[in-house]
Amino acid sequence: MHYMLHLSYDGTRYAGWQRQGNTDNTISAKLEKVFSVLDGRMVQIDGAGRTDAGVHALDQTATLDLRIDRTCQEIVAYANQYLPEDIAVTRIEPVPDRFHARLNAQGKIYRYEIRTCAVPDVFRRKYQWHLGLLPDEEKMRAAGEMLLGKHDFAAFCTAKPGKHSTERTLRRLDFLREEGTLCIEYEGDGFLYNMVRILTGTLVECGLGKREVRQIPEILASRTRARAGITAPAQGLTLVKVLYGEGNIPSPDPPTSPDGHKSNTGRPRRYQESRLP
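-> structure tokens emitted (277 positions)
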């Protein structure tokens, strides 16, 4: 039977999501090992998003085939019994055979967390970029508004240009400031390799006065990685949710993160956003 998994993980000690030939220390490799033992054969897991080394997920999704005759509850219980403690299957459900977690996804939401206080948060250090400076949020939001919509984001991608399109639609940019912390939430139809981290690095540079806001359209038009800002550290990035549209497989609400942040529901009061009209 064909299933879709929902899972959360702390990516700190892993070499990313995608299976690799030189190491089995990846999220998908750990999952495939457990499910292969459960099913008595090699099981391949296809994720909706290939998160980088050190990047986390609140509600990643993936598809796989299993031949065993067990209930969804039993499968979840087995997986969580044998998976490492920093990876958890939160839900599993049967889906149509042709359903693919990545190909059927219609968007993703990512959140990037920045520590702006000079004093590090020792309990959140694995999930924040400790910048230690307070960027100008108005400048960051002004720059973010120029990034909204459909653009060629080649300048905000680490990978070399290939045959695949680098056009993406950034639907929403939200800013949430709490004491000592600034979070940026991105929603788009898809994201290129390192795109969110480069966008974040560029917005921070605008907020610190290291880059002019008016440069954003020039950077986009250049399609040149060197014109954009730094790549923000991996540990501040979390995949919040994978989006599926009407008539597709719906995703459950993402679980709450350790600091109490949620995605679009239950927004804290101090919330500012930029979005497409």
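Residues 76 and 89 are 6 Å apart (CA to CA).
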